[in-house]
Design brief:
The protein is an alpha/beta fold. The chain is built from 26 helices and 13 strands. The strands form four sheets. It has a five-stranded parallel sheet. A four-stranded mixed sheet has the order 10-12-13-11. The protein has a two-stranded antiparallel ribbon with strand order 1-2. The longest helix has 35 residues.
Amino acid sequence: MRYGNILNLLRTNLPNPITRDYFCQKLNVSCRTVSSDIKKLNDAGKKNGFRINNIRDKGYVLEIFDDKKFKEYTHQLRQVNTTMTDVRQRLFNLEIILLLAGDFITLKDLSERFGVSVSTIKDDLKRTNQFFKEKNLKVVGKPHYGIYISGNERDKRQAIIDLFRMQLSAPVMTPEYITFTQMINGNELRKAIEDSLRKNNLSINDLLLKNVIEHVRLLIFRLLKKNYISVSESEDTGDGNDQVEMLVQDIVGYIEKTYGMDIPDFEVLYLKKQMIGKLSFVETNQEQYLQKRIHQALIKVDKSYQTNFEDDEELQSFLLIHVATLFKRLTTNHQLTNPLIDDVYVKYANVINASLDFMHYLNKDLAHKLSKDELGYVAIYFAASLERQKLLEMENYRNVVVLTQDGRGAGYLLETGISRLFPKSKIKTIATNELYKINSEDDLIVSTVDLSDQTFEIPVIEIDPILSRDNLNRVEKSVRLLSEDPKQFVDETQSLIRLFDSDNFHICEDDDYLSILKERAQALEQSGKAEFGYKDSVLERELKISTVYEAGIAGPHPMNNVAREEVIDVTILKNPIHYKDKKIQIIFLINIGRGHLTLHQEISRMMIELMKDKDLLKSVIQVRDYKEFLYKITLAIKRS
């Protein structure tokens, strides 16, 4: 799995070298692991047509001396990845079982729990070795006793927490842990922590609160089994904040009283370390400095994306608290996971790049340490701000004309709904024979009749004559798109349909995702639709954070949108391919204009609709020509 990623990175970057540190960051593994992987790849490369050369002070470069053998080898790697996905559930559960056992467990016992043969368990154990190695742990066996996990307690607890956050459909637990989870009162524990947070004037979002509860639950379980961390593992955090100290003491008091145990001081220090970076507060001596840096960073983001984040005081307040705690986490390499990360990246794809740039402007030295999950939290704040900006845009309309066939009846009913969308606007309902009443003070026309043969100096949005939620949504989306691309006639459906054309529609049998991106992005450059450098920007974005989503859909785009001619290049794959453990069947390569964040969001909505409607997605993937594709994709756009 990781071998394929290393070869993809090296091949895409040819002829330039890639440093070992870059691999560590991209693959989220240690430098030792990278060196070991490359050594093993070089051993395999002798028979498979390639070698990885280490250029002094520059990094690694891929050399292919037999292209046919190399392609066959990478194809085998992708097949192995597919097989690994099939057994992943069992491997996760095996890792959990071994970590929670706390003592020797036999291969026979494991085979009975999973309903597989002992030889299968032995094969699975070989596959788990890399996971435990990366967690600084080791599977150790002893004749007549069985196997157990060797390593320090802190690393074991972190490994357990990481596994618990995996989306397992049917996690298998040890009998001891099942008994424990039934014994502990989760609501009572949550209430105790929330009461202490309020008492000590500390705040925390719900996702992080669940994270804290996970740590405390696991702490109680490990202490009951007398699995203590060592004194050396509990180094003092050096944080002297009295509020944090009081919270930790309250949690310790609750545990000792409820479970009748005495918690050693070194375990208290460990608990304190888990709290750092999760609690929202700003040190007084940091506040003004951070406020200034945040404000300056937002000005730069607004200039790049044509937004108004700088004017959003609520955004700046949220970012101040979040960034202060985030920097604590980054300096101690104690980052959080985000269970909603996949939803965040597809739903808010339009602000991921802006969030990434913001963090770089804020502190470029720490920004490169930022995990995908942590960036997702930052993106949520920017997405919320963008929604507030859109609401303010609706308030800028002061005079809106509602035009119907006769100006009465359904027209007045429609006026009621339109007035809710434009709370500060005066609504004027007129009939088609009263067009003379439209004057220079009016800002927008919402019409239920066809006005394509008319000319007006203000925008027109055409809708159905009956008031409905779909109609109102259509008006709202059209107004938001209008602010990015002023036109006389605005149609949110056509705003997306216009992005597709037969010249940028392909059905192919290629089996390498990055190669497809490189080829199609380069074609957009050569056609003049994309700026020079678009291809490199798309690949840079994909290598930083993948845009392969669920259900076989990929929505790649560049680091910065600067299209000459807006278009979505579509590639449908006859046979599914895999990239970073995710299946790909259709690629929407996005090339849109600077600052068109609302348009990008509408594209995301279209992809989400396809993810939700598996039958529609299947019919799109099975189309035989562009005409059929356009019909199917129009259905997805209208439903989104």
